[in-house]
């Protein structure tokens, strides 16, 4: 079955509204993924505050670190509309997989909501830790009572979200809701989310040209800078086309 074959399906007005909003915000989310990835790369501190040197750097140049963490939170909130649109699009005419798709949607939404709260929490915790560092507290005194992330290993933010995304894209592949290329891109992005958790927990490093790099950072860079944005822009095409085709058919039926 080709992509054009699914455009003949009729969506309700509320479903078209969801697809249009999802199509709009997929582009915003894709651009935010790239922006956050670039900001992390140029942040003097990066994703982690490494000892006293990291605190000292962040104390004098905190803005990039704060901004990309808040942008991550905004990205997660906007991504809710994308996930709901994805569920509507893949679920259309897919009643046999309604259970899997509903479970997947809940997993993804929970991961996004917890992730958004977690990134804002990081900003507040970092602010308190910097105040204590400036006041002369030792690193043990700073980190021991305050570093309590809502999702310590990103199990829900990346892991659970990735599992839900993987299941949704497998259903999309099986039922020809997207092109094979788009489905494979979604599956790769989903697996990358899961690998992020595993590499974060295991702290795996890989050697490239004699240099040691964190596997998590390499996967995060390709996911946020390449795979994720490409998948989002692909979804945008499908969501918009389906909503427009369905609206046109409804107008033609009313005119006839």
Q: Kindly state the percentage of residues in helix.
A: over 70%
Report how far the terminal alpha carbons are from each other. Answer: 29 Å
Largest sheet: 2 strands, antiparallel
Principal-axes geometry comes out as elongated
Short key terms for the protein model shown above:
256 residues, mainly alpha, two-stranded antiparallel ribbon, 8 helices, 2 strands, elongated
Brief characterization of the structure:
77% of the residues lie in helices and 3% in strands. It has helices at 13-42, 51-60, 63-91, 98-134, 139-146, 155-174, 180-202, 215-255; strands at 205-208, 211-214.
Structural account:
The structure is a single chain. A two-stranded antiparallel ribbon has the order 1-2. It has helices at residues 13-42, 51-60, 63-91, 98-134, 139-146, 155-174, 180-202, 215-255, and strands at residues 205-208, 211-214. The model is unreliable at 1-5 (pLDDT under 50). The protein is mainly alpha-helical. Helix 1 (13-42) packs antiparallel against helix 8.
List the helices and strands and how they pair.
Elements: H1 13-42, H2 51-60, H3 63-91, H4 98-134, H5 139-146, H6 155-174, H7 180-202, E1 205-208, E2 211-214, H8 215-255
Antiparallel strand pairs: 1-2
């Amino acid at each position: 079955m080709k992509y054009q074959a699914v455009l003949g399906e009729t969506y309700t007005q509320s479903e078209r509204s969801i697809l249009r909003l999802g199509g709009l915000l997929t582009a915003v989310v894709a651009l935010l993924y790239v922006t956050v990835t670039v900001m992390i790369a140029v942040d003097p501190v990066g994703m982690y505050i490494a000892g006293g040197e990291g605190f000292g750097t962040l104390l004098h140049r905190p803005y990039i670190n704060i901004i990309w963490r808040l942008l991550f939170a905004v990205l997660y909130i906007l991504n809710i509309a994308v996930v709901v649109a994805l569920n509507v699009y893949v679920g259309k005419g897919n009643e046999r997989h309604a259970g899997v798709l509903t479970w997947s949607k809940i997993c993804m939404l929970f991961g996004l909501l917890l992730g958004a709260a977690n990134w804002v929490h990081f900003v507040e915790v970092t602010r308190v830790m910097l105040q204590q560092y400036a006041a002369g507290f030792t690193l043990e005194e700073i980190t021991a009572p305050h570093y309590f992330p809502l999702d310590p290993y990103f199990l829900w933010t990346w892991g659970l979200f990735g599992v839900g995304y993987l299941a949704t894209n497998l259903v999309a592949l099986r039922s020809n809701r997207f092109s094979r290329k788009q489905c494979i891109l979604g599956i790769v992005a989903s697996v990358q989310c899961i690998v992020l958790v595993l590499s974060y927990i295991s702290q795996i490093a890989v050697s490239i040209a004699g240099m040691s790099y964190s596997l998590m950072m390499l996967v995060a860079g390709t996911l946020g800078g390449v795979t994720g944005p490409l998948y989002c822009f692909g979804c945008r095409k499908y969501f918009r086309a389906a909503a427009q085709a369905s609206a046109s058919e409804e107008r033609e039926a009313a005119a006839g």
